[in-house]
Structures are given as C-alpha cells and as structure tokens.
Amino acid sequence: MRGGQAPNIVPDEAQIWVDRRTLPGESPEDVRAEIESSLAKSGVAADVVVESCTEEKPPLETAANSDATLATADALESVGLAPDCQHVAFGTDAGVFGRAGIPGVVLGPGSIDVAHTSREFVPIAEVEIMVRIFERLLEGEGPARVQSHS
Questions:
Q1: How many CA atoms lie within 13 A of 62 on its CB side?
Q2: Where are the beta strands (DSSP E) in 37-104?
Q3: Measured between alpha carbons, how far is 36 from 52 in angstroms, rounded to an integer?
Q4: Is 73 exposed, middle or buried (0-12, 13-18, 19+ CB in 10 A)?
Q5: Which of 20, 56, 76, 146 could form a disulfide with 81 if both were Cys (CB 3.0 to 4.6 A apart)?
Q6: Most distant CA pair in the chain, distance
Q7: Is 144 in contact with 71 (CB distance < 8 Å)?
Q8: CATH says 67-149 is which class?
Q9: pTM score of the predicted model
C-alpha cells in the first residue's frame, strides 16, 4: 500500500496491491467482480478503480481418485507417511499442466514457511525420504499404477 508525499500530509491518492489467488473454477474476471462488489458494499469512495486482475499461475485441482493422487498416496504410505493429499495455498507451475489436461500432485521436502526466504533450508532427512518416495513413484508399483495399466 502506498500513497501521499509524507507521513504528515493527507494523501490525494493511495494505491493498494492485493494478491488474491484464483481457486479451481474461478477466473480472473470472477475475482475482479468479487473485489468490486466488496468495495461497493463497503461504501468506499466511488473513484476506486480495480486496474487489473491477472492470473499468473492457474490453480491446480487433481481428482482424489486420479492415478496421480492414488500413486502419490501409495508412495507416501510406503515410507510411513500419512497418505492424505491436501490443498495448499501457494502457486506452482502444476496448475499450468493441469489446465493442459496433465494431472499432477505437488510433492517435495521442506516447508513452505521458509521457502524463498533468506533462511530457506531443507532437512537432509526429508530429502532422503523424498528420494524413497520418488523411487516408489518411478517404480510404477501400487494400486494406482496397476489400475492405470489394466
């Protein structure tokens, strides 16, 4: 958010940049309409302008019964981790592939809480577990793989 010339002067203009991610089934136009509707309901001055709504990365939604999801759940379970796949609130290129008809699952070691920060790190033990998970996925074993080849 920015506006004005100095802290002690009432600004003639202010700008705010909002990062509102699209969800599966939404378009940038839907988000723009939602923002404009919220502003109108709030009684904000009529000269408020929503300049642009763009979708940098589309959302990813992969069916719970897809081969990708089932194979990932099987691989997680094979190393003793919970097999549940969950939604996450960050962007990846996976949505681009999903929109092109290539289902996917976002999977990797480390924590999004420290990703892309000056203190980013990934514990070695998590990398080692991830190697086992990727090996399992590449082996193509498990119920999801058997179903996809039958």
A1: 26
A2: none
A3: 11
A4: buried
A5: 76
A6: 72
A7: yes
A8: mainly alpha
A9: 0.65
Q: Please give the single-letter amino acid code of residue 108.
A: G
User: pLDDT tens digits, residue range 72-99?
Assistant: 999 999 999 999 888 887 888 898 898 8
The radius of gyration of the chain's CA atoms, rounded to the nearest angstrom, is 22
**Segments making up each domain of the chain, as ranges:** 2-42, 67-149
Q: Which pair of structure tokens corresponds to residue 16?
A: 């705010």
Q: Tell me the per-residue pLDDT of 104-117, one tens digit each, with 9 for 90 and over.
A: 999 999 999 999 99
Structure tokens at 3: 């506006």
Residue-wise pLDDT for 22-49, tens only, equals 888 888 888 888 888 888 888 766 556 6
Secondary structure (3-state) at 33: helix
